Structure formats: C-alpha cells, structure tokens
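Re: [ENG-882] Designed sequences occasionally contain unexpected residues at chain ends

Forwarding the minimal case from QA. Structure tokens:
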C-alpha cells in the first residue's frame, strides 16, 4: 500500500461486455441507514448464487470510485459476473454517504465496515432468494470480508488483499521509502496498540498519525489477516496480480498458506485495480483513474469457476 495514498485511505477477450445488451436486471437496494447499493440479478441464474462485493479502503463507492480516482472497476467486475449468470450486490462505503450529506463522523471505526458487511449478508440470508452467498473483498475489503464471513456464507474471494496487519504494511513502506522515520513510527504504533493517543510521531506522517485518524487506525490494526482467514471453514480463492503496486504476490501466498480450504491464482500483468498493465509503473498508476480500461480477461472465468 503506497504511503502517498494513505492520507485518503485511512480515514475515512470474451469476458468483457462489449455491447449495450445485458443479461441482468438492476435494482437499487438500501440495506439500512448506512448501506445503499445495487443488486444485479441475471435473467438466468440457475444455481441461485450471489456475490457480495466489498470495496477497497478510502471513501470508495459501489463502482470502485473516489473523488480523484474514477475507474469503475467494481462496476465492471459486477456487470461482467452478472452478465455471465451470477448475481452481484455492491454498495457504497458508509463514509461515502456521510460525505454526500456533509456529515462526516470522526468516530468511524474499522469495525463499522465489518458491521455493514454483516448487515448485507444478513439481509440476503433473510430474503432467502439465493442458495449460495459468496463474499468478494477487494484490497481493504478483503479483510472486511474475511471478518464478515459467517455460517451461511458459502465461499470467500480475496482480490489484492494484504496478508499483514495495517501497521506492519505501513512500517514496511516507511522502511523502504523513508527509513529515518522508522523508529518514531514504531513508537507511535506501539502507543496506539496500548490504547493511547499520541502526538509523538513524525510530522511527515501527519496524514497517517493525526489525532482524527488514530482511533480508526487502532481499530484496523488489531486484525491480522492471516490469523483471521485461518478461522474460515469455507472454500477461499486468493487472487493477486503480478503488477499490483500495493500488495505483493508474496502476501497472496501467505494468505493462501494460512487458509484451510484455499486456492491461489496469480494473474500475470494484472494490477491492484484489476486492469492488465503491459507498461511501467507510470502507466500502472495512471490506470487508477482511467475508466476506459477493461478488467483482466482471466479474472472473471476464475471467479465463475470457483462459484459454479
């Protein structure tokens, strides 16, 4: 996970649809006061499967977009899957709704994201419209999805999910980019682990450690993805791309090794937002804001095979 992204993130082929014709019906569904999303129901869904899609960190909407990052990757993912016969539900993160209403809560925690995902699962279990419910988590949504998977969830899919607690992720980045700030950062994280608020942190990392972020960070860093995924008794599919700038394929391997019922797929040249990248890191970074791109042609078949 890139440090330059954290100020935004912490607080708050045959498989591409090439025509306007679709094989699904779209329906807006509000789960509760925090969660609004969209259900795509295939006109033919013989196995009655639903994939609940959970977005990455930051104020990510149901389409995978943020204010300065518009790629429609979650929309593309959902439409491709539903066009192939699998129902999908994707939703805005609760902070998106707060931003739109101009009422941003400073008490939001990582556990709120888990609660929202559980509410979505419970909603569709109660409706009893689907025989099989899967959770797909992208980026930060991978950890949220792991923690939201419960008895009635059939399987779990992680795309670009980290295997390390967020404090370790950040410390790794600090060590690689600004090693002189490592000691101070370690001390600051230790204070957060102890449940304390601290002002003793590098000023250059204000976007990470400012007081408004510390409660959220504390709630996030308590979860170790490897420990949590090891508890899942359901089939899991871990997917990562070789061009992912935020999460390495080594982390995907660690998640796979931690699972009891897991499989691993490494997709060549796929980046963190699921686009195939043939060029350098500049092309890779620019693609986060390029909605004209199509997702990796190997991604949809792999998910369909796992579900069906």
């Amino acid at each position: 996970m890139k440090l330059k992204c954290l100020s935004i993130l912490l607080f708050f082929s045959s498989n591409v649809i090439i025509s306007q014709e679709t094989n699904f019906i779209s329906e807006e569904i509000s789960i509760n006061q925090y969660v609004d999303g969209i259900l795509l129901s295939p006109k033919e869904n013989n196995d009655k499967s639903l994939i609940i899609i959970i977005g990455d960190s930051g104020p990510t909407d149901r389409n995978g977009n943020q204010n300065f990052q518009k790629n429609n990757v979650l929309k593309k993912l959902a439409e491709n899957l539903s066009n192939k016969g699998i129902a999908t539900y994707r939703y805005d993160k609760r902070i998106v709704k707060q931003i739109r209403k101009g009422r941003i809560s400073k008490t939001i925690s990582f556990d709120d994201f888990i609660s929202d995902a559980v509410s979505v699962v419970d909603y569709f279990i109660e409706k009893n419209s689907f025989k099989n419910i899967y959770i797909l988590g992208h980026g930060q949504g991978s950890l949220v999805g792991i923690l939201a998977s419960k008895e009635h969830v059939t399987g779990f899919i992680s795309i670009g999910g980290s295997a390390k607690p967020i404090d370790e992720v950040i410390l790794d980045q600090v060590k690689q980019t600004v090693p002189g700030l490592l000691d101070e950062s370690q001390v600051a994280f230790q204070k957060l682990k102890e449940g304390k608020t601290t002002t003793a942190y590098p000023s250059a990392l204000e976007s990470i450690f400012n007081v408004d972020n510390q409660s959220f960070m504390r709630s996030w860093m308590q979860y170790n993805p490897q420990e949590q995924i090891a508890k899942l008794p359901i089939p899991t599919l871990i997917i990562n791309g070789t061009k992912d700038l935020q999460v390495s394929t080594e982390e995907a391997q660690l998640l796979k090794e931690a699972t009891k019922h897991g499989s691993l797929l490494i997709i060549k040249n796929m980046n963190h937002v699921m686009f195939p990248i043939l060029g350098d890191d500049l092309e890779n970074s620019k693609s986060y804001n390029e909605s004209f791109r199509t997702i990796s042609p190997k991604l949809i078949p792999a998910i369909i095979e796992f579900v069906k």
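QA comment: On inspection the terminal residues look reasonable. Residues 3 and 173 are 7 Å apart (CA to CA). Proposing we downgrade this to a documentation issue.
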